[in-house]
Each structure stands twice: as structure tokens, then as C-alpha cells.
Design brief:
Shape: elongated
Number of helices: 18
Structural class: alpha/beta
CATH architecture of the largest domain: 3-Layer(aba) Sandwich
Order of helices and strands: EHEHEHEHHEHHHEHHEEHHHHEHHEEHH
Number of domains: 2
Length: 403
């Protein structure tokens, strides 16, 4: 199949860390030529050490690989006139400018939206930011742990009230969700440009991404409803929507939202035919009224078998449920393997490593994953494409304008 949905699209990426670079990686996955502009000293994300997947890995920096796969990298000093000139030449035939620089920095560089759009009206100008482009905090730096997780409400609603401190988020959760939205916005703007010839300004913030993620809670807040923080296990109005512990200390998640539809078959599958017509549990209303008793009965049932045994029992039931898996189990889950949700990157020396694949597939397949560039790996090649000769390239390097 053709994996080049964005073939012929040139993206100039002026960004660092995770959020916006991941959007660029998604476009590169589907064939865009993404030219990544890094500072002379490199993206600080290259120096991050975390979980044995960054600079502490001792091999491929998988954090950088995931955020920058399939791109080309050019090292420029945009504080120098010559560096900015190179950028302008790149933008002259670009389709997209993708950036996460803050408004003040963009204005100082003459790269604010109004200036860029006036010069190149057909360019799609896409920016990711922490808190939105307007308002008192528009120029405040924002990472996903601050703009998405903390200010966006997720830490509050997901922390049980009895804890003294909020739980911590997993790495780059908001960044990668925001990146999907930004890539979607860019695709829509390119479609609009195809139809009208006009570029657009595309904005996605981590704060807005958090609010979209918490849409159910926002609906309650907007309509005088109750926004509840995630408790411990707590009361279960529907006893067959919730988790149950197995004999080996694992858990099974039941999600029988249409509980009357599944109740009889479920009771028979677990060997409790007597519960089908028990007046306390006979229908949703009865189970709600006697929830504590129903949960106690099911707790006792689930505690008699291991997770593996429950997977076999419930696997025969046509109803929504799932084992609660560790991430280490997830990577080899038969569904993950069958659908190609983990991809492999092969380097020129034969070394391979695995990365999560882009969750979007075309015609049943995802794109092949390519490696991320080294810092400034393509500086000379890109300049040669722009018409620079080697003497000029050496001059720029000696002046410190390129890396």
C-alpha cells in the first residue's frame, strides 16, 4: 500500500521537547519531508535521562527516536542574520511551519503569525503551546505536567481525596495527545488550502487538550452537575461496572453498561446460576439498591480463581470486559501483535529497536517507522538543496551560524 499520504508536503519544524515534535513525527510517518531546525547546542530533550529510555539508556535514545522519527535535522543559530536567512529560504517553498516557540520569542525572530502569513499567505502556520495564544498566561512556558496535568484538572480528578499529594502523571501523556490533535489540525488546514489556495493558522494548547480529555467532567461542571474525584473502589451503583481482584492479586475490569443484557449469561459463566433470579439482583434497579451485597458476592467469586483462569472463563462470554494488564504484558498482547501496534526500526548497522506505532492505519496498515536524525545530521544536505555551495557552507560553519 501507499504510505505516503503527505508525500510532497514540506514541513519546517522549529520546536523542541515532545509535544510539537511528535506532531511532526506523525506527519513524517505518512510521507511529509519534515526538516527539523535545532539550536546549535541541540534540543535539550536529547539530554533528558528517564526510565532507561533517554540518555541513560546507553544506546539509542528512544525518547528522541519516538518524537523525531523520519525527519531531517539542521542545526541553525537563529540569533544570527545568516541563520535566519537560511530559515527564510526554507520557508519559501514550505507547506507548513510547525513551532512551539512562545509568542515573545516568535515576535523577536520576526516569525509571528501575522508577519509570516503576510510574506507567505499559502503557508499553514501551526503552533502548539501551553495555555493558548491569548490571555494573561499566553507567554508562560508550559509542559504537559503543568499545563495539561496540573492546571488542566487531570491531577485533581484522578487523585483519590484521601491522598495528601496528587498522583504523578505518566511521561508526556498530554504531549502525545496534543500532538495527535495538532497533526489533525494541520491535515485539515492542508485540505482547506487545496480547496481554496489559502493557508491557515492552526493552534492547539495543552490546556485545551486536557479539557477535551475531561469532556465528561466538563459537561457536569458546565451544567451544575457534580464533578467527582476518583475515589478508591467506593460504592458501585452498577456492580458489573468495576474491577474485581483475582486469587493471584490481579484484577479484571467488567464494563457491563447494559447490565440486564449480560446479567444472566454472566452469572451462569461464573457458576452462580442462583444469582440470576435472586430478588436482590434480578435487574439493574435491584442491583443498584443492593449494590454492596452484590459486590460482596462477586468479590468472593473472583477471589477463587487466578487471572489466567478468569481470562479463560470470561473469554467465552460475549460481553465487554478486560484483564488489567501491566505495560510489560501489553507489548506482547496478541491483539497488539496482530494489529501491528508496535513497530520496529532497523538501523544501517543491523541494530533494531521497537517503538509504539502511530495509532492511525490506512487500508489496514500503519506506516513503516524510520529512525530519528542525529543532531544537525542533514545541515549540509539541506543547504545544498537550497543552492548553497561548499565555500558558503564552510563560511557559515566558521561563523557559528550552522552546526
Amino acid at each position: 500500500m501507499d504510505h505516503e499520504a503527505f508525500s510532497g508536503v514540506k514541513v519546517v519544524e522549529l520546536a523542541q521537547w515532545v509535544f510539537v515534535p511528535v506532531a511532526g513525527a506523525l506527519l513524517a510517518d505518512w510521507g511529509a519531508d519534515v526538516v527539523r531546525i535545532e539550536r546549535i547546542e541541540g534540543d535539550p530533550y536529547r539530554a533528558l535521562a528517564t526510565q532507561g529510555i533517554g540518555t541513560d539508556r546507553g544506546g539509542v535514545n528512544l525518547s528522541v527516536a519516538l518524537a523525531n522519527r523520519g525527519k531531517r535535522s539542521i542545526a541553525l543559530d537563529l540569533r544570527a542574520d545568516a541563520g535566519r536567512q537560511v530559515l527564510h529560504e526554507l520557508l519559501a517553498d514550505a507547506d507548513v511551519l510547525l513551532t512551539n516557540l512562545r509568542p515573545g520569542a516568535l515576535e523577536r525572530l520576526g516569525l509571528d503569525a501575522d508577519t509570516v502569513r503576510e510574506r507567505w499567505p499559502s503557508l499553514v502556520y501551526a503552533r502548539g503551546h501551553g495555555f493558548g495564544m491569548r490571555g494573561p498566561d499566553a507567554d508562560q512556558p508550559g509542559y504537559d505536567a503543568s499545563a495539561f496535568w496540573a492546571r488542566g484538572g487531570l491531577a485533581y480528578v484522578l487523585t483519590p481525596p484521601e491522598r495528601d499529594y496528587p498522583i504523578s502523571q505518566r511521561g508526556a501523556m498530554g504531549d502525545r495527545n496534543g500532538a495527535m490533535a495538532l497533526a489533525f489540525g494541520i491535515a485539515a488546514a492542508l485540505l482547506k488550502r487545496h480547496r481554496t489556495g489559502e493557508g491557515s493558522v492552526v493552534d492547539v494548547s495543552l490546556l485545551a487538550t486536557a479539557m477535551w480529555t475531561l469532556s465528561s467532567d466538563l459537561l457536569a461542571a458546565l451544567n451544575d452537575g457534580e464533578v467527582t474525584r476518583v475515589p478508591g473502589r467506593g460504592p458501585q451503583p452498577n456492580p458489573v461496572v468495576g474491577s474485581y481482584r483475582t486469587s493471584d492479586g490481579r484484577h479484571v475490569q467488567l464494563v457491563f453498561l447494559e447490565s440486564d443484557r449480560y446479567w444472566a449469561a454472566f452469572c451462569r459463566a461464573i457458576g452462580r446460576d442462583d444469582m440470576v433470579d435472586d430478588p436482590r439482583f434480578v435487574d439493574l434497579a435491584a442491583r443498584r439498591e443492593h449494590s454492596a451485597a452484590c459486590v460482596a458476592e462477586l468479590d468472593a467469586v473472583f477471589a477463587r480463581r487466578t487471572l489466567a483462569q478468569w481470562k479463560e472463563v470470561l473469554g467465552r462470554l460475549d460481553a465487554p470486559w478486560a484483564p488489567m494488564q501491566a505495560v510489560e504484558e501489553l507489548v506482547d498482547d496478541p491483539q497488539v501483535v496482530a494489529n501491528g501496534y508496535v513497530g520496529e526500526v532497523r538501523l544501517d548497522d543491523g541494530t533494531t529497536y521497537r517503538l509504539p506505532a502511530v495509532p492511525v492505519q490506512f487500508d489496514g496498515e500503519g506506516p513503516p517507522l524510520r529512525r530519528a536524525p542525529e543532531h544537525g545530521e542533514h545541515t549540509e544536505a539541506v543547504l545544498l538543496e537550497l543552492g548553497y555551495d561548499w565555500d558558503r557552507i564552510i563560511e557559515l560553519k566558521d561563523a557559528g551560524a550552522i552546526g
